[in-house]
Amino acid sequence: MTAVLDTQVLPPVGVRAGAFGNATHLACRACGAQSPLGPFYACMECFGPLEVGYDFPRVTRAQIEAGPKSIWRYAPLLPVPADIATFRSTDPGFTRLVDAGNLAADLGLRKLHVKDDSGNPTHSFKDRVVAVALSAARELGLNVLACPSTGNLANAVAAAAARAGIRSVVLVPSNLEQQKIIASAVYDTTLIAIEGNYDDVNKLASEIAGEEEGWAFVNVNVRPYYAEGSKTLAYEIAEQLGWRLPDQLVIPVASGSQLTKIDKGFSELIKLGLVEDKPVRIFGAQATGCSPIVQAYEAGQDVVAPVRPNTIAKSLAIGNPADGPYVLDVVRRTGGRIADVDDETVVRNILRLARTEGIFGETAGGVTVGVTAKLIADGDLDPDGETVIINSGDGLKTLDAVAGHVGPKTTIPPRYEAFTDFWKGYTA
Ligand SMILES: *Cc1c(COP(=O)(O)O)cnc(C)c1O
Ligand SMILES: [Zn+2]
């Protein structure tokens, strides 16, 4: 895809040549106005969100296949330098695409794959976006990695900064799951718990980002680069299917960045001739207790009214989603839909994924499997279509969600008779 460059878009000042690979500029998603590559995230004309634009060279399947087994095999399609794989990052990505025949049979689908992103270095898809944000931060001379987070992002930022040998500051809601707090704090990050929900944390982060020079808030001032990391989910799914696109996907939605970038990733592969063009229907999944985009979708609106989150799916608890309108655009344009399930259904579907496929997903995974079942029941998902769902995080980080529902079948003294007593009654 060749970008049409405004004459006003000058090469970035003070940034080394090739710092952003084949990326050429930032473009406003609302009005199209272009900005140079830099620590910019809002359009100077209309304050709309900025997105990275490229001038891609010819890239072949063989070139990609010869690359590292991480997101860096797609470096030519990301805003990162060509030698990115030599920098110290957590090297996320290339997680397994599980042929989920048992869950498919249980749901009544012909063919289902689970893209299991719990296999990333800090056990969620956030390692992908943080790795690209870290590269941008380094190239822009920003030396503190920071974020407001619903949990997983804090884990990924803290780990990536530790490995890169730079400082990190992570802001999280104080009511976050204990597992996610500890799994950030171990990296010796400056973890600050904020008395408020994610939207309060995010607002505070924006204020700090406006004042502190040299800080890269991965999902605020370097958000355009961060967001590009999610495209690698689309690239991997296509490559792992043998350079083919699936018919339909179900994707968990918080800010909506992941969903919109998976759509962008597919269209780039088509334009580069790496996969055959075909329609891919994209579906979004939210928890009922935080479903602002579902509400807008069902009301037929283009704007998303913020809500106050109240759900166990804390990683998806963003009441004011930055990419909400773009999620609506993608699901409507591709013939998909965005739907929600309640917390009880989330728990049931965490267990369903575990019991059918041996995959222990976090609450976001329960949301995605639950919404998949609902979309089938409503006749929105084609049971004969090849389907991919994303398991974006690890159940070990949200143990409280299932702790009251599962446990030992019995507790016995360490004696054989005690065991046989139990076993007789148990199997009878
Ligand atoms: C952050 C997150 C998401 C959604 O990300 P967005 O890009 O903000 O929509 C999904 N699942 C998990 C586990 C996450 O941590
Ligand atoms: Zn604009």
Automatic annotation (TrEMBL):
<protein>
    <recommendedName>
        <fullName>Threonine synthase</fullName>
        <ecNumber>4.2.3.1</ecNumber>
    </recommendedName>
</protein>
<dbReference type="Pfam" id="PF00291">
    <property type="entry name" value="PALP"/>
</dbReference>
<keyword id="KW-0663">Pyridoxal phosphate</keyword>
<keyword id="KW-0456">Lyase</keyword>
<dbReference type="InterPro" id="IPR004450">
    <property type="entry name" value="Thr_synthase-like"/>
</dbReference>
<comment type="similarity">
    <text>Belongs to the threonine synthase family.</text>
</comment>
<dbReference type="InterPro" id="IPR001926">
    <property type="entry name" value="TrpB-like_PALP"/>
</dbReference>
<feature type="domain" description="Tryptophan synthase beta chain-like PALP">
    <location>
        <begin position="91"/>
        <end position="393"/>
    </location>
</feature>
<dbReference type="InterPro" id="IPR050147">
    <property type="entry name" value="Ser/Thr_Dehydratase"/>
</dbReference>
<dbReference type="InterPro" id="IPR036052">
    <property type="entry name" value="TrpB-like_PALP_sf"/>
</dbReference>
